[in-house]
């Protein structure tokens, strides 16, 4: 075998090895990221109804039949939104003596002008920038909480999410709270992290 051909073969094999290692790294990193995201979602599920309960105007945001309507919005993954809604609904038959309805709703349906205003919204999957901005604007105009478990969403305008350090804290967006008129119990705000 000629030296040039041998060098090309060695370079090709080395490149294949590097690409294989990079692919494994990307897959492993994606798995770790998905695991961390799933953990945030699971931590959020019991926290969501508690946050809704400390909205000082909670009872003003009930349905006509006096139920708390908790909507789990999704763009593509209805099954996941349905599972999250069922989990919260099963664990929370009522919030402060108010019956609870948990329902998955496509984001596009919830954003319609004539949609039923929920008591609060849980973001069931990561949303693109334009969709997320529309959801935040919707929540501000309707005066309701948008809870997102996903990292970076409070900074993008979600009313509340999570701050995870050695402990878990509710993480509120002060600008969204003020713009929407949502009033949270001040004792909870004092022990929470806030984004200015």
Describe the protein's architecture and organization.
The chain has helices spanning 3-53, 78-91, 107-110, 129-142, 153-156, 174-180, 186-190; strands spanning 68-74, 94-95, 98-106, 120-123, 145-147, 160-164, 168-173, 193-195. Mean pLDDT is 87; it is low at 9-33. It is of the alpha/beta class and 196 residues long. The strands form 2 sheets. A 5-stranded mixed β-sheet has the order 2-3-1-4-5. It has 7 helices and 8 strands. A hairpin with a 3-residue loop joins strand 6 and strand 7 (168-173). The longest helix has 51 residues, at 3-53.
What's this entry about, in short?
It contains 7 helices and 8 strands.
What labels describe this entry?
196 residues; five-stranded mixed sheet; alpha/beta
List strands and helices in order, with pairings.
Elements: H1 3-53, E1 68-74, H2 78-91, E2 94-95, E3 98-106, H3 107-110, E4 120-123, H4 129-142, E5 145-147, H5 153-156, E6 160-164, E7 168-173, H6 174-180, H7 186-190, E8 193-195
Parallel strand pairs: 1-3, 1-4, 4-5, 7-8
Antiparallel strand pairs: 2-3, 6-7
């Amino acid at each position: 075998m000629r030296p040039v051909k041998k060098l090309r073969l060695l370079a090709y094999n080395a490149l294949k090895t590097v690409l294989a290692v990079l692919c494994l790294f990307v897959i492993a990193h994606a798995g770790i990221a998905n695991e961390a995201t799933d953990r945030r979602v699971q931590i959020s599920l019991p926290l969501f109804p508690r946050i809704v309960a400390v909205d000082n105007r909670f009872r003003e945001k009930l349905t006509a039949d006096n139920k708390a309507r908790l909507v789990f919005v999704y763009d593509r993954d209805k099954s996941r939104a349905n599972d999250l809604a069922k989990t919260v609904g099963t664990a929370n038959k009522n919030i402060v003596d108010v019956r609870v309805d948990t329902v998955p709703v496509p984001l596009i349906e919830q954003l319609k002008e004539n949609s039923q205003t929920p008591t609060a919204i849980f973001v069931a999957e990561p949303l693109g920038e334009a969709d997320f901005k529309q959801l935040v604007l919707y929540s501000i105009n309707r005066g309701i909480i948008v809870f997102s478990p996903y990292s970076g969403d409070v900074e993008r305008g979600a009313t509340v999410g999570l701050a995870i350090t050695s402990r878990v804290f509710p993480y509120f967006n002060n600008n969204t709270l003020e713009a929407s008129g949502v009033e949270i119990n001040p004792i909870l705000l004092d022990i929470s992290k806030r984004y200015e």
